[in-house]
Amino acid sequence: MKNYLAILGREWKSYFSSPIAYVVMGLFLLISGVFYYLLVTNFVQMCMQADMQARYYQMAVPKLNVNMMAIRPLLHNMSLFALFFLPLITMRLFSDEKKSGTIELLLTSPVTNTQSILGKFSAAAGLYLLMLLLSGLYMAVLFFLGKPEIGQILTGYLGLFLLGLCYIAFGLFFSTLTDNQIIAAVSTVAFILIFWAIGWISGMASPAVGKILGNFSLIEHFDDFAKGVLDTRHIVFYISFTVMGLFLSFVSIESAKWRGR
Amino acid sequence: MIEVKQVTRYFGRVMAVDRVSFQVEKGEILGFLGPNAAGKTTTMRILTTYLPATSGTASVAGFDVHQDSMQVRKRIGYLPENPPLYTEMRVADYLEFVARIKGVDPRTRKHAIAETMDKTGISAVSRRVIKQLSKGFKQRVGLAQALVHDPDVLILDEPTVGLDPKQIIEVRELIRSLAGDHTIILSTHILPEVSMTCERVVIIDQGRVVAEDTPDNLTRKLAGSQRFTLIAGGPAGGILELLNKVEGVRQVKLLETGAPAQTHQFHIEGDAEGSINPAIARAIVEKGWDLFELRPEGLSLEDVFLRVTTREEEGGGQ
């Protein structure tokens, strides 16, 4: 536990002692903010149009749902931004240690590989959580303007967080494979994109195969969260996916010993 | 303290270390000498649990490096060839982190860090970011990192590489001062370093141990004879005759006669066993002649090194 905290603390500080944390968080918030603005203004316009039409045809004003029309697509967009931003905070976790030689310090200190993997994973997850919390301010603003449903927002954020953990775990894994950060980041994005695309392919495949493939799709599982549906199947899937990434990282570090790193 | 038995390591098909065995006693400084790519670093990495051996066993303080790697890790301080520094950290923060993962007691941590910085002469830069330090200071921070938990065993991979002459002397002195409390293995391809700091030398070449002894013995044994330069005053012929009678002397050559004060310079070769210089000195003084200089010429470690490694090559060709 002490070692885990030491490693977590060092990683966390190193995020903030370099511009990485600020740049990644800032740009993530900026882009999310742009889409937030577009989606919300678009929603407001639709509301006004609907209002005018209703008056013109002398009908009851339809109730448009901000949760479904603005927040849900925003959550989907953010899940995509996270895909491009999280590899940037995971790519250095092990690659950098390999490149600078500090891995020799880590692997000759009385720290288990599990402790260092979990420490690094938690630091990146913490940074991501901070990003999400800050973006939560956007959602908070909606409560001043209207009456969004809080349950769907919280569920959506839980989904975003769990999905992000999957990205981070595999980002960590790819950074154990190479001492080149760019390669680590690009492989992570490519790998995750495949698990997105599986969902689209599943539409083309035969129903039986399609269903199986669909179950492996990262994004397919996300839609329920974005709709505000909390289903343990999805939670279990994301957690298993994350554990898989962490386990592969462990295997990769252990086996590198025998290959000669 | 350290025992290495028949350790072999392959990288794919390439054999990096070939049945290496040696021992290091507690408090000893062992020099690990060899050309680049001889297998020094690999051997050290096996000892520090960084790499497993393909076969053979190694133990530190009675703990097997593979079975009880965590116990071994607690007891070693390791300075790899490139000091493992998180360059974006400040020196004190970095040492704090190392002390934490090395398991230094939180109550004594502050003290341990201050002491280590003092010992390695980096107290003045403790608040500086490592990135901005000079190479010499970085190397010292690396050394501090290996020392902060006061380990029983220190494993230093080319600790003086890239330092200026003054820093080299300081680091060597520091290493020497650490012997006794710590058992030290030091690798280098710089020979004077070994004769200056180490009590025993293991010469390794192409993954194999080719010689092991004290620097002095090694020089003598491999030279096959003792050599001296003698400068004496007196009759040249008389001295020559006298020297030939001294026990153990094989050959004497008159090199030159100095103009002032009738001094002559001789080259003497003697048997490898025992010391013949006292006998030579006594003989000359007893005759009432003047003894100006009697200097052992022994092969330098450089020569020994070249001999050992070239011999090995000839042997390997069979």
Description:
The complex is a heterodimer of chains A (261) and B (318). Chain A has 261 residues and is mostly helical. Chain A has one domain (2-259). Helix content of chain A is 87%, strand content 0%. In chain A, α3 (66-90) packs antiparallel against α6, α6 (113-145) runs antiparallel to α7 and α7 (150-177) runs parallel beside α11. Chain A is elongated and about 75 Å long. Chain A starts with a helix and ends with a helix. With 318 residues, chain B is of the alpha/beta class. Chain B has 2 domains: 2-213, 3-Layer(aba) Sandwich (Rossmann fold), CATH 3.40.50; 222-296, Alpha-Beta Plaits. Chain B has helices at residues 40-47, 69-75, 91-101, 106-120, 135-147, 165-178, 191-197, 215-223, 236-245, 277-286, 301-316, and strands spanning 2-11, 14-24, 29-33, 55-60, 63-64, 76-79, 153-157, 183-188, 200-205, 208-213, 226-233, 249-258, 263-270, 290-296. Chain B starts with a strand and ends with a helix. The model of chain B is unreliable at 312-318 (pLDDT under 50). At the A-B interface, α1 and α5 of A face α2 and α3 of B.
Largest Cβ-defined interface? A-B, 27 and 31 residues
Low-confidence stretches of chain A: none
Oligomeric organization of the protein chains: heterodimer
Order the strands across the largest sheet of chain B as they lie in space. 6-7-8-3-9-10
CATH architecture assignment name of the largest domain in chain B: 3-Layer(aba) Sandwich
Helix content of chain B: 25-40%
- Total strands of chain B: the figure is 14
Radius of gyration of chain A in whole Å, from Cα? 21 Å
Mean pLDDT of chain B: 84
- Unreliable segments of chain B (pLDDT under 50, ≥5 consecutive)? 312-318
Principal-axis shape of chain B equals elongated
Count of DSSP E strands of chain A? 0
Q: How can the largest sheet of chain B be summarized?
A: 6 strands, mixed
Distance between the termini of chain B: 36 Å
The coarse silhouette of chain A is elongated
The gyration radius over C-alpha positions of chain B equals 24 Å
Sheet/helix structural class of chain B: alpha/beta
